[in-house]
Amino acid sequence: MAAALTKIRFRDVQIEMAHGAGGKASRRLVEGLFAPILFGPTIEPLADAAHIEVNGTRLAITTDSFVVKPLRFPGGSIGELAVNGTVNDLAVSGARAQALVVTYVLEAGLSTETLETEVRAMAKAASAAGVVIAGGDTKVVENGKADGMYITTAGIGAPIPGLALSPAAVHPGDKVLLSGPIGDHGIAILLARGDLEIEADLCSDTRSVLPLVEAMAEVAAPGLRWMRDPTRGGVATSLNELARDCGFAVILSEDAVPIRDTVRGACEILGLDPLHIANEGQFLAVVSPEHADAALRALRAASGGDQAAIIGEIREQPSATVLGLTGYGGTRVIDMLVGDPLPRIC
Amino acid sequence: MAAALTKIRFRDVQIEMAHGAGGKASRRLVEGLFAPILFGPTIEPLADAAHIEVNGTRLAITTDSFVVKPLRFPGGSIGELAVNGTVNDLAVSGARAQALVVTYVLEAGLSTETLETEVRAMAKAASAAGVVIAGGDTKVVENGKADGMYITTAGIGAPIPGLALSPAAVHPGDKVLLSGPIGDHGIAILLARGDLEIEADLCSDTRSVLPLVEAMAEVAAPGLRWMRDPTRGGVATSLNELARDCGFAVILSEDAVPIRDTVRGACEILGLDPLHIANEGQFLAVVSPEHADAALRALRAASGGDQAAIIGEIREQPSATVLGLTGYGGTRVIDMLVGDPLPRIC
After folding, report:
1. What is each CA distance from A268 to A262, A265, A344, in whole angstroms?
2. How far is CA B44 from CA A90, B62, B266, B340, in A?
3. Which residue among A49, A158, B16, B62 is buried most deeply as judged by most CB within 10 Å?
4. Which helix (H) or strand (E) holds B89?
5. 3-class SS of residue B142
6. Residue B153 gets which letter from DSSP?
7. pLDDT at residue B255 above 50?
8. Candidate from B47, B65, B136 with C-beta closest to A139
9. What is the mean pLDDT of chain B?
10. Domains (ranges, CATH) in chain A?
11. B123: chain A residues, CB-CB within 8 Å
């Protein structure tokens, strides 16, 4: 009964929306309550997927719940997110998704047509990602709960040979790569809710990033140090987690980060930093200086990777910090997301 | 795009509570909508867990969402259910749970104390079941949604050597075993809600059944044909699924089924059949006639198995039917659960 004695550091008296936003509050909850009680000492509580041994074989496992509002939005839907999100968590942990399982919590009164649309979206996304759906479960809750549906997926994957990803493998001089433009998903959701009086042709970036990861791994596997998909909390939060976990500085060339005008404009109106906006089809990678150019070329040559960029590098100092360099020669400290400016985006 | 062309047979225009109750409506939803669109042809849509090959190794995978009300009840809580339910789904598919992943959908305003209690309950149940929790995810939804919390677990397991379970392995003459008294969980939940003016000392039966399964497998593995944990829909629904899947008759000696007086009494008051009430710590097994006595002795000798019983047998006719034999020499057809008399019991 060691668990019964575990002290927890989480001091908030109740759960707030920010605890689900992927930023500082989420981190406090996970590190202060879930990790000490629930996870074994070998589990990295904030990693995208755990790599474990089952029956003598290494495999990766991960899970995510999806509660996005609205259920459908330009470029995607909850069903697509639920498949791609789990495929991507496996991919950036260095694994190829093999099988998913799915559960639905459905609201009584949900139209069958809406459900069928999402089930078909999941089948299509699974087919595109090359993964089978091996089972599932359905619960129904009363009308008024669950906003139509919540979907949870769990996935297992096979490690991609030759990859050994870890923040501990990151060294000063390594380059930071980004697979494409940021903020599309979060802002597309915001626009779909009609909260902003903006007409724009922006689509969520939801997709499987596995083909891009594999293209990069093929030419740069020995130089690949770390990957993450910057979902809730955005690029800024992922890079802060990296900086903290590796202990070095992440120096971000802000002008090198691809951002669409629509995303930039919406963020200006809302006073948000695009670096804090969620993505569902992009990833960050740290690559050794020797392999960085080859990795970038491979990404750009792959379908959907033409806007990939080297956006920064790792330096010794200031330790455990993300610094942004602007075009005008200025610098700023870039922090994790605080609060929850865009709730329920995935 | 084969998925886009798949015809579905599910004709209900909207989702009702009964679609989550585990009986006939659930089966229509799974077989009529989810299975044709989502699952590959090799997946048994209603099996407790799928056995698949990943990276050259056979393993079992399963998932369940838990939405029980209230969160805590005599004998257990949502956190314990979420661990034991997935461990048990793996166990009755013939696998030993190795790792679980967990997601929480939390309602804003949930007290940290309530959350911590459930996280600790999960850690304790995982420790008791010998399984590690390898990762997770947390989402937060607005106050008024999600009834405090919904928990989803997914689990992977290693196949128990020597077991080859399938309805196709079931033959006339085989015996049907039950691990212990039925209906405790469903009726304990009902009493905890205060819907009935009954004072009773009844506890949910939630527990890991893996030790019982392993005790039985040790002496009777070659004779073990099929297992299932009769959760939603109860023993009657599980046996009907067996009868349909194997094509034979399941002849149930009703007097042989262990049922506590409290459960029997509550069912009489409510007009419910104990055979339709959910269990969370029992399982059914079909065993060859040569191995049935050894299997029963092993169950009874194991901790928590002292009320195990042989409750019936498989016969050629009437095909795909469950027949109950009463002590007075009568017979009745026992059907699956219809409707949802006890919603949200797991």
Report:
1. 10, 5, 21
2. 25, 12, 35, 24
3. B62
4. helix B78-92
5. coil
6. E
7. yes
8. B65
9. 94
10. 1-43 (no CATH), 48-159 (3.30.1330.10), 167-333 (3.90.650.10)
11. 3, 6, 37-38
Instruction: Return the beta strands (E) in chain B as ranges.
Output: 50-54, 57-66, 72-73, 76-77, 95-107, 132-141, 149-159, 175-178, 224-228, 249-253, 284-287, 309-315, 321-325, 331-333
Q: Give the nearest partner residue to A38 out of B10, B45, B133, using CB atoms.
A: B133
Pairwise CB contact (< 8 Å): B63 & A136: yes
Letter for the amino acid at B340?
D
Start-to-end Cα distance in chain A: 36
For residue B86, the chain A residue with the least C-alpha distance is: A137
Partner-chain residue, chosen from B29, B56, B152, that has the shortest CB–CB distance to A65: B152
Whole-number Å distance between alpha carbons of A166 and A164: 7
Residue of chain A whose alpha carbon sits nearest to that of B27: A138
| pLDDT tens sequence across A38-84 | 987 777 777 789 999 988 899 999 999 999 999 999 999 999 999 99
Arithmetic mean of pLDDT, B116-144: 96
Checking if the pLDDT of A195 tops 80, the result is no
- Reading the block at residue B179, the tokens are 């691990």
Rounded to whole angstroms, how far apart are CA atoms A13 and A23?
18
In chain B, pLDDT over 90 holds for what percent of residues?
Answer: 88
- In the sheet that A149-159 helps form, which strands lie side by side, from edge to edge? A50-54, A57-66, A149-159, A95-107, A132-141
Structure tokens that stand for B258 in this block: 């262990």
Each residue's pLDDT tens digit, B40-94:
777 777 778 999 998 889 999 999 999 999 999 999 999 999 999 999 999 999 9
Give backbone dihedrals phi and psi of B36, rounded to 5 degrees, phi first: -65, -30
Tokens coding B211: 């030790």
Closest CA to A343 of A68, A14, A9: A68
Q: What is the largest CA-CA distance in chain A?
A: 58
Report DSSP state, residue B173.
Answer: T
Q: Which of B16, B38, B89 to mutate to test the interface with A (most CBs of A within 10 A)?
A: B38
Long-range contacts of B326-332 (CB under 8 A, 24+ apart): B326/B254, B326/B255, B327/B254, B327/B255
* pLDDT at residue B2, rounded to an integer: 43
Contact A262, A270 (CB under 8 A): no
Q: What is the ipTM of this complex?
A: 0.96
- Strands in B175-178's sheet, in edge-to-edge order, are B224-228, B284-287, B175-178, B309-315, B249-253, B321-325, B331-333
Compute how many other C-beta atoms are within 10 angstroms of the C-beta atom of residue B1: 9
The C-alpha of A95 sits at a distance from chain B's nearest C-alpha, in angstroms, of 11
Cβ–Cβ gap A57/B57 under 8 Å: yes
How near does any CA of chain A get to the CA of B27, in Å? 10
Say what the pLDDT of residue A1 is.
39
Q: Which residues of A touch B1 (CB under 8 A)?
A: 124, 127
**Contact across the interface for B133 and A98, Cβ inside 8 Å:** no
